[in-house]
Design a protein that fits this description.
312 residues; 10 helices; four-stranded mixed beta sheet; globular
Length: 312
């Protein structure tokens, strides 16, 4: 089971939260719609349209030829237009909804215990429930229900994000139990060697194949996955491997000590730390003390597979 890097992602979450719903990088032009002044018009793709439907809601929709026009719910001055030709695509709808669900997690703290006082957390969980048919929170949800629902939502999305399909018949996102990410789909990310070794230490790489001077494979982190390639020559650099393992160890230690996340992820984090280091501590506190005392004195083992303290 791969891990969510915490410290770096926490800052990124805060940065992205303010623009999670509307930060689509779209062309904005003034327009007038049926007597109503649109201060901006967002030109959406089908995927972006379905994301907006989930995240903000839409209103005032009307089809004019090959274009659907409308405005954001509660914001009549913020309009949009989207080509109709792909709006019936179940793939576009599933992708848009998945991006919307992911944006909910991006906009909230990593640890669901901090979701309790946030009104938007309950709203997001209710929206997720509507399009999945899963009751992440009950009616009349309490703060404790929000925390529990947040944990369940995180676990569900991490486990199923690559297997979600839209069913017109059921009217909801469903998990295709036979689905698996297509290895040949999507762009290939070119990783530097240190990033590759970080992913490798986190247990996030799979289906690797070497050839033509590079290693190709698949990486899967919570909320983000895809194909990668990395230079085989660059992987021979011990310093890159050392820096990658250091970054992974730090992320794992911080994950254990900064969050009260799902027990399965915490257990897996402990297991990864024991693989990457020569230590076998049982508690997050022990790992944190070890990291603070030894992070500047760690070296790469002779076989390049573990971090060791210089005294070993």
């Amino acid at each position: 089971m791969p891990f969510m890097p915490t410290s770096a992602r926490a800052a990124e979450r805060r940065r992205r939260a303010a623009s999670a719903a509307l930060g689509l990088g779209l062309a904005l032009v003034p327009a007038v719609a049926r007597g109503q002044v649109c201060r901006t018009v967002q030109k959406l793709s089908a995927e972006q349209y379905w994301k907006v439907v989930l995240v903000t809601g839409v209103a005032g929709e009307r089809d004019e030829g090959e274009i659907r026009r409308g405005h954001l719910e509660g914001a009549p001055e913020t309009c949009f237009e989207v080509p109709r030709r792909r709006l019936d695509s179940v793939d576009a709808r599933a992708k848009g909804y998945l991006e919307g669900l992911t944006s909910f997690l991006d906009a909230l703290p990593l640890d669901p215990v901090h979701w309790r006082p946030l009104p938007e957390a309950l709203i997001y969980l209710q929206k997720a429930s509507r399009i999945t048919g899963i009751a992440f929170v009950p009616a009349g949800a309490t703060a404790a229900d929000v925390e529990a629902g947040g944990i369940r939502f995180q676990d569900w999305l991490v486990a199923n994000r690559g297997k979600l399909v839209w069913s017109d018949e059921a009217g909801k996102l469903m998990v295709d139990v036979e689905a698996a990410p297509d290895f040949d789909e999507g762009e290939v990310a070119e990783l530097d060697a240190a990033t590759y070794w970080t992913y490798e230490a986190l247990g996030a790489v799979s289906r690797e194949k070497d050839g033509h001077g590079e290693r190709r494979g698949h990486y899967e982190l919570p909320l983000r996955s895809g194909r990668f390639r990395v230079s085989l020559a660059a992987l021979e650099d011990r310093e890159a491997r050392f820096q990658g393992y250091l970054a992974a160890a730090q992320q794992l230690v911080l994950y254990l000590t900064e969050t009260a996340g799902p027990s399965a992820l915490r257990t897996a984090a402990l297991a990864r730390l024991r693989l990457v280091t020569a230590e076998s501590f049982e508690t997050p506190e022990q790992w944190l003390v070890w990291w603070v005392r030894n992070r500047d004195a760690l070296v790469l083992s002779g076989d390049g597979k573990r971090l060791l303290t210089e005294s070993r």
